[in-house]
Design brief:
Number of domains: 2
Number of helices: 21
Strand content: 15-25%
CATH architecture of the largest domain: Alpha-Beta Complex
Shape: elongated
Helix content: 25-40%
Structural class: alpha/beta
Low-confidence stretches: 291-322
CATH class of the largest domain: Alpha Beta
Largest sheet: 8 strands, mixed
CATH superfamily of the largest domain: 2-enoyl-CoA Hydratase, Chain A, domain 1
Distance between the termini: 80 Å
């Protein structure tokens, strides 16, 4: 065997990490290996690995008998969309990804190189902390890493992606980086785990409750975001890199703009309050900046539509008559192994109220999010006025004529009722007078015109629900998606809202209503669609649907007999 052949054989062995059985176990947990993650993150063929054959130096506790090339971390550099990026990935198949002295030195070497090259560094974490067999030597390795985290802070972007356990000493380094992202259901961040918590405090807590993505992305604010799986997380990291400078002297990346440089947006006059102590939402400013405008192929001549932004056009497919307003065809959406919506189809006729019902967890809100553009379907499609919209962003769907409300209403408290209602109008106009006029009209439609200049914190719950509806109406929708607008209301309060919905429908507005109160559904809906475990189990007039045995069973259980 030649030297080159022997070297390649060693490389093949090093790439296997802890071996095929441990790789299979990693996949069984729904996780990728360290090398698979790097391959997804970096541009194809760009990865240059460092120190592939490094092994630990420990001779205590029999460790001299177990040496694996790479020592539990893969390090190197490559490109992300053509930009130089340094990356290290903890390898859970090798000693559980635990940190030894040489493991730490591989990471610090990479950190030093990233600083010299003034390029971003990304750490992919899937490890159980320090390698206890090495004792103080391993702990000292953390100090080397931490010191470089501090030195790189504010100089180059540092990104941490938690893709498995991240415990003990490992958890401190991500806390010093610029961004932390997690993967739902497989990643955890805590200094000490559930077993120690139970021993010390006698409290039983799961790893997810102690330090999962649901905790750190919604409560502790340690994580900047959480993703459904490894693939989604890594693809989003590639996107993030596009928006970041390589270092503190490089300047931000520049992307071509498709907006008119001379465009005037009058709504900016009302975005920032006169009182400097009042907050304002920067996201509103972001929404005023148009993204790339896509036009569909195989289309008739471009036509403008009500509510379109300046210079935007919509393409209408040739030969399609608008017999229905909305068509949902074989729509499915999965979150990892969970299927939230499965092969759902239904259509909405213009000017009618349709109810979407089902037990909790049936997939109703997910279906709403798919129609509104907040989620992209795994399969199937959504057609609005004959145009396929399931790949359009929410702001485009809104401008096309679909507006939605939310179960939990959160009006801007420092703004008046009228100012809140005007927010919806700015989706189609930059003229403050036009927005104010439309907002008044919307408030009159829901019975809030007399309270137009009141503060929102003075409103009752029914009034806040109607303000949420008025904001949606201010977008000038053709289809209104109402998500449990009656929730939490007394019967007399709900009756007033029923009258509002009926008047809106009489005026030609199409409404899709998610509602649990069957009395309301029977009163307002001309048609009902029933979901259960993500699938449609019934559709038809309300009287027929409520008598359907499958519907009764989904609500009352298999033991129910009429």
């Amino acid at each position: 065997m030649s030297t080159i052949e022997a070297l390649e054989e060693r490389r093949v062995g090093a790439r296997l990490g802890g071996g095929e059985k441990r790789i299979e176990a990693q996949h069984a947990r729904g996780k990728l290996t360290a090398r698979e993650r790097i391959e997804l993150l970096l541009d194809k063929g760009s990865f240059e690995e460092f120190d592939m054959f490094v092994e630990h130096r420990s001779i205590e506790f029999g460790m001299e008998k177990t040496r694996i090339p790479g020592d539990g971390v893969v390090t190197g550099w490559g490109t992300v969309n053509g930009r130089k990026t340094f990356v290290f990935a903890k390898d859970f198949t090798v000693f559980g990804g635990s940190l030894s002295e040489t493991h730490a030195l591989k990471i610090t070497k990479l950190q030093d190189m990233a600083m010299k090259a003034r390029a971003p560094i990304i750490g992919l974490y899937d490890a159980g902390g320090a390698r206890i067999q090495e004792g103080v030597a391993a702990l000292a390795g953390y100090s080397y890493v931490f010191r470089r985290n501090v030195q790189a802070s504010g100089v180059i972007p540092q990104i941490s992606v938690i893709m498995g356990p991240c415990a003990g000493g490992d958890v401190y380094s991500p806390a010093m980086t610029d961004f932390i992202f997690m993967v739902k259901n497989t990643s955890y961040m805590f200094v000490t785990g559930p077993d120690v918590v139970k021993t010390v405090t006698n409290e039983v807590v799961t790893a997810e409750e102690l330090g999962g993505a649901s905790v750190h992305a919604t409560r502790s604010s340690i994580a900047d975001g959480a993703f459904e799986n490894d693939v989604d997380a890594l693809l989003q990291m590639r996107r993030l890199i596009d928006f970041l400078p390589s270092n503190n002297t490089d300047g931000v990346p520049e992307w071509p703009s498709f907006d008119d440089i001379g465009r005037v947006d009058m709504s900016l006059d009302t975005l920032i309050p006169d009182n400097p102590n009042k907050p304002y939402d920067m996201k509103e400013l972001g929404r005023l900046v148009p993204a790339r405008r896509h036009l569909a192929g195989d289309c008739a001549p471009l036509q403008s539509y009500p509510g379109a932004t300046h210079g935007m056009a919509v393409a209408v497919p040739k030969g399609r008559r608008m017999t229905t307003l909305l068509e949902v065809e074989n729509l499915s959406r999965s979150f990892g192994g969970l299927v939230a919506v499965k092969d759902v189809s239904f259509s909405l006729r213009a000017g009618r109220i349709t109810a979407l019902i089902g037990p909790n967890g049936a997939g109703k809100t997910t279906c709403f999010n798919l129609v509104a553009g907040a989620l992209k379907p795994t399969s199937g499609r959504v057609l609005f006025e004959g145009r396929q919209i399931d790949n359009s962003p929410p702001e485009t769907v809104c401008r096309m004529g679909i507006a939605r409300t939310f179960q939990i209403v959160r009006p801007m408290r420092e703004m008046s009722v009228l100012e809140n209602a005007m927010i919806g109008a700015f989706s189609w106009t930059r003229n403050v007078s036009e927005a104010r006029s439309k907002a008044y009209e919307s408030l009159e439609s829901v019975g809030l015109a007399a309270k137009a200049h009141a503060r929102t914190d003075q409103l009752t719950l029914p009034d806040r629900k109607m303000l949420e509806t008025a904001k949606a109406l201010s977008t000038r929708p053709k289809l209104l998606l109402l998500d449990e607008v009656m929730a939490g209301l007394r019967p007399t309060e709900a009756a007033g809202i029923v009258g509002v919905l009926q008047k809106l429908a009489e005026g030609g507005l199409t409404i899709l209503l998610v509602e649990h109160v069957m009395r309301i559904v029977m009163e307002v809906a001309s048609r009902v669609v029933v979901l259960h475990h993500g699938a449609k189990i019934a559709e038809g007039p309300p009287g027929e649907v409520v008598a359907d045995p499958k519907v009764l069973e989904s609500y009352l259980g298999a033991g129910f007999h009429a």
